[in-house]
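Weekly structure sync, notes
Attendees: PL (lead), two postdocs, one rotation student
Agenda item 3: pending single-chain targets
PL asked that the sequence for the first pending target be pasted directly into the notes so everyone works from the same version. It is reproduced below exactly as submitted, 348 residues in total.
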Amino acid sequence: MSVVRWLTITPTIVLLLHGCIELDQDQSAIISRDERSGDGAALEISYPDRSVEVGESIPIGATVTAPAESGPTIRLQLAENGPFMLRGDSDTDMHFEDGRVRMTRHFALYCLQPGRHELPAVEVTFTDGEPMVSKPSMIQVESLLAGEFDPGRFEDIRTAVSLDEPDHVGTIIIVAGFTAIAAIGVIVFLVARRPRPATEPTPHEWAHEQLNRIESENLPEQGKVHEFYTWLSDVIRHYMERRFGIAAPEQTTDEFMAIARTQQMLDEQQKRMLGRFLAAADRVKFAGNRPGASECDLAMDEARNFIDTTMPVDIADDGTTPPAAMINRTARPQPGHWRDSHEHRVPS
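Predicted structure, written out during the meeting:
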């Protein structure tokens, strides 16, 4: 076979192999469903209905439907020394309808240990009751090596083999050319198969995007004030978790503010802003307060103002951004909604 024919066939083989790999990822998923008695909260989990290879992404989807006032939060119970590692996860997608919330979150795992393993469970916590945990699910992880590996088995050393010098220079040229083409094909295949890292938005970019989504829903105009404040406070708590590493979504307001007061992440004015905001949200969620549309607009302005005053800026002389660098400027004054005269403690 000529070198020109190999140059024509090898890229085609590589493209076909890559196409097979991509097609193999489009498989049906298994969906399990659990329900909680009392309020009808339901948890649906989806995972691949097939075996996966070592290092391949394993998509896990979790969707919970529950009363909006129950405050559900979705997280993955990933063991520290387990066989699975987290490749990435999505933001929580929320939709409100008839006093209920539907939350969806996606995770991408991978495993480097071949064999049959139990997938990490998905846990949903509520502010008003016991958590829900998904049922155990198994998945087969296939090795990329052919055959079984036995570390106690060794092949005997074979006798030396004499090699006759080739008497045809053309054969050497063809073999060398084929080897080079095959190596290029393997490199192209590996580069094409390598997953491209997704660009992660900064905490304040993510928060402003979520606030824009809340505004686009026009919840106060529809009379859904409780859903508006629930979503708004959830964004601020997740922003604090992303920005400062505090597990705010999993803590009560008192626990969260106790941590914020003891650490130097916020100045005094920013702490007061955050405390007023959380107190106002708790009055709506737990004390039955129903503010008007204009107060909801002021709440949105205060949320954006708090994010803008706590996002990092470049302050070093060499042009770098220290990890703890923050804007420490005076917040824009807003009338009414969260002033100190309106503060009161909501019973926990």
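Discussion points:
- Residues 11-26, 315-348 have pLDDT under 50 and may be disordered.
- Residues 11 and 341 are 73 Å apart (CA to CA).
Action: rotation student to compare against the earlier draft before next sync.
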